[in-house]
């Protein structure tokens, strides 16, 4: 492998599990540069919990399933398994919510988490995915469990034009399931000017389980049109200065008109059957996600100091299906607009033979305007406007080319303006509707100083030790609290923030030329966490209490010969809480956050240079952490028993001539009939659904 460069906040361990898997799929491993803390660094200097999902790995997984939530569940050890639907509810990272970014532009809506922030870009536009595992404040609000940053493709050649054209077909052994996708990548460089253009379109067919039965239409990805476009323009002013601008647009709309037949939890799955009621006024999905970014870099501003400036804007809307739980029925949506600026200075303090020191400092400015409404205009949450001004400083010292010490501080200064509004009348367990009340808005202020410190000691190639402490600061999901308000003023509501302390220890190394390993342990605590629980009328509410989440994860990677690689990863976690805040932790955090243990395994063979064969396995273990109600026999939300399941995927690609390649991917190769974890732990009849059955994808690719 070539030298790997990374950059990160000052957190824990560096995981290159997914990146290592790229090596057999390409003759020349591309240098990977991470931007997690906006600074290039050698991997041996990074004490951060990071998984890098490289471009070849993304492309290989895309052959099997183009859903980014599926790609991530097979490549990130401590990320929860996906639901197979448009929602990423339950797909937490280390038991906590994750902040999603595209090139550093925030995509998540922490003021009202709609669980649609992972599916906001087509994988064909992604060069790599950087995953910081563990609490992080480096990008501000919402990263309790870590950060997932999609880094988009860029020009890599000096040619005036180069590109990749792809067309693919998906389908199952059943009528109506045929889907098609096409993508085009163009990039090039003319003198000091470079560009990258990426276009993608996908039309999915019906989705069926292993018994050829239609999957539920709720949150369905079936019969959906997905569009993605990206334009990135760059100009090198001189060898030290560069300016870059980019636009990314994503849209997904479903025209599925399939009826719903509700099953019985644990017995009969909820399925699609007949025709829908055609009550939707808007196709469900994410009709728009626009991201605009302008950046300026100066490598030598003055006296060993570099400068990076990023300006960004995001406009997001997601729409959910029709529901009669609202008075007179309706469809809800989440609307969010963000505008921000990031200003970074990086100054080298000294550079001697045996030691180096540098300091990074700057400020982040963000305005986030979020609201949840019905499509007919009724407000479910009020308009919320958050302004965050956060100065920060990070320091790094390298000693004797073996020891790296990092530390940082960030001051969060957050103000939220909440409009007056009337709560929405929604159905209760007895069939009646809640009474709408008027709620006075107001202003909320949050301030905190959070920090991190990390240490990495590279003793020998076969043993590198690391340890870290890091914090995250997040506003609790304000929108959900307000929409279920029983108080006439926000001042009487529990709106305190979540501060997470993350502790991590581990070891990584290369024992020989054919064996790499890593083992990480972590503990994260919060004095006032937030978990969805079920009220007496079975409505969801947020419960605040002290929490502890702890776990382990690790991987092994073997390359006994050049044409063969195999390995895998394991992740396990547990979460406990103190409902009475008395120092005792007798209760468990429910399964909506604490994922079942997971094993990822892979085998890759390249018997001849033109042929690649890969097998991926995902095994989710049994999870039995709660007992049902002794009177009703029913599980509470998030506490359902989760059985184990194992899924195998097959990938084959063959290079034809010089520029052509044909790839075949088969998802759920053995056509296993199973349910996603969320179907079990949610413990609801309507959410007890089957997973996708065996499905094939055939892709033709031409490079020029």
What does this structure look like?
The chain is mostly beta strands and 704 residues long. The chain has one domain: TonB-dependent receptor, beta-barrel domain (Maltoporin, Chain A). It has a 22-stranded antiparallel beta barrel. Strands 2-4-7-8-5-6 form a 6-stranded mixed sheet. The protein has a two-stranded antiparallel sheet with strand order 1-3. It is globular and about 75 Å long.
Tags for this entry?
704 residues; 37 strands; 4% helix; disordered N terminus; Maltoporin, Chain A; 22-stranded antiparallel barrel; 6-stranded mixed β-sheet; mainly beta
How would you summarize this macromolecular structure in one to three sentences?
By secondary structure, the chain is mainly β. Helix content is 4%, strand content 50%.
């Amino acid at each position: 492998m070539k030298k790997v460069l990374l950059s990160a906040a000052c957190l824990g361990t560096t995981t290159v599990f997914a990146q290592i898997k790229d090596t057999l799929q390409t003759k020349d491993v591309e240098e990977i540069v991470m931007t997690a803390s906006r600074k290039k660094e050698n991997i041996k200097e990074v004490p951060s919990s990071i998984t890098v999902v490289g471009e070849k790995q993304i492309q290989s997984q895309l052959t099997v399933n183009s859903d980014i939530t599926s790609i991530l569940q097979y490549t990130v050890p401590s990320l929860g398994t996906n639901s197979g639907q448009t929602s990423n509810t339950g797909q937490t990272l280390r038991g906590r919510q994750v902040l999603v970014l595209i090139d550093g532009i925030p995509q998540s809506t922490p003021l009202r988490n709609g669980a649609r922030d992972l599916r906001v870009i087509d994988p064909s536009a992604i060069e790599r995915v950087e995953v910081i595992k563990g609490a992080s404040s480096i990008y501000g609000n919402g990263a309790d469990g870590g950060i997932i940053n999609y880094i988009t493709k860029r020009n890599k050649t000096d040619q005036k034009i180069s590109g990749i054209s792809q067309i693919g077909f998906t389908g199952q052994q059943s009528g109506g399931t045929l889907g098609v996708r096409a993508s085009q990548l163009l990039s090039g460089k003319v003198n000091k000017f470079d560009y990258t253009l990426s276009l993608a379109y996908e039309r999915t067919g019906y989705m069926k389980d292993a018994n050829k039965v239609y999957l539920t239409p709720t949150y369905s990805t079936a019969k959906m049109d997905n569009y993605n476009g990206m334009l990135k323009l760059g100009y090198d002013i001189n060898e030290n200065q560069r300016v870059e601008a980019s636009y990314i647009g994503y849209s997904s709309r479903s025209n599925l008109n399939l009826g719903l037949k509700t099953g019985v939890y644990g017995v009969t799955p909820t399925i699609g059957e007949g025709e829908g009621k055609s009550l939707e006024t808007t196709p469900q999905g994410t009709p728009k996600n626009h991201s605009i970014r302008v950046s300026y870099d100066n490598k030598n501003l003055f006296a060993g100091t570099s400068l990076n400036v990023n300006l960004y804007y995001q406009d997001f809307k997601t729409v959910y299906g029709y529901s009669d739980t609202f008075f007179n029925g309706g469809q809800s949506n989440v609307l969010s607009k963000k505008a921000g600026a990031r200003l970074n200075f990086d100054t080298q303090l000294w550079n001697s033979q045996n030691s180096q020191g540098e300091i990074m400092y700057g400020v982040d400015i963000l305005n986030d305007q979020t609201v949840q409404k019905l499509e007919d205009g009724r407000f479910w949450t009020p308009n919320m406007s958050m302004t965050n001004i956060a100065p920060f400083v990070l320091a790094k010292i390298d000693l004797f080319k073996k020891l790296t010490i990092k530390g940082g501080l960030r001051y969060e200064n957050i103000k939220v303006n909440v409009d007056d509004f009337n709560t929405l009348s929604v159905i209760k367990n007895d069939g009646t509707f809640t009474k709408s009340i008027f709620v006075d808005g107001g202003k909320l202020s949050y301030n905190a100083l959070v920090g991190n410190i990390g240490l990495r000691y590279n003793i020998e190639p076969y043993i590198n030790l690391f340890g870290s402490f890091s914090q995250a600061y997040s506003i609790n999901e304000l929108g959900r609290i307000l929409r279920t308000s029983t108080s006439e003023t926000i001042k009487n509501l529990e709106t305190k923030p979540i501060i997470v302390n993350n502790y991590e220890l581990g070891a990584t190394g290369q024992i020989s030329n054919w064996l790499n390993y890593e083992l990480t342990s972590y503990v994260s605590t919060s004095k006032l966490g937030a978990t969805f629980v079920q009220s007496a009328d079975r409505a969801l509410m947020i419960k605040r209490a002290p929490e502890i989440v702890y776990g382990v994860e690790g991987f092994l990677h073997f390359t006994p010969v050049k044409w063969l690689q195999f390995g895998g990863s394991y992740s396990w976690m547990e979460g406990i809480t103190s409902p009475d805040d008395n120092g005792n932790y007798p209760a468990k955090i429910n399964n909506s956050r604490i994922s079942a243990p997971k094993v990822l395994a892979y085998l890759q063979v390249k018997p001849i240079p033109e042929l690649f064969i890969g097998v991926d396995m995902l095994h989710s273990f049994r999870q039995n952490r709660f007992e049902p109600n002794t009177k009703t026999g029913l599980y509470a939300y998030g506490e359902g028993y989760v059985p184990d399941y194992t899924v195998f995927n097959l990938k084959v690609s063959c290079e034809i001539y010089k520029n052509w390649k044909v790839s075949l991917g088969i998802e759920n190769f053995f056509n296993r009939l199973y349910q996603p974890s969320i179907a079990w732990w949610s413990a609801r009849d309507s959410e007890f659904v089957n997973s996708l059955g065996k499905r094939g994808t055939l892709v033709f690719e031409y490079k020029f």
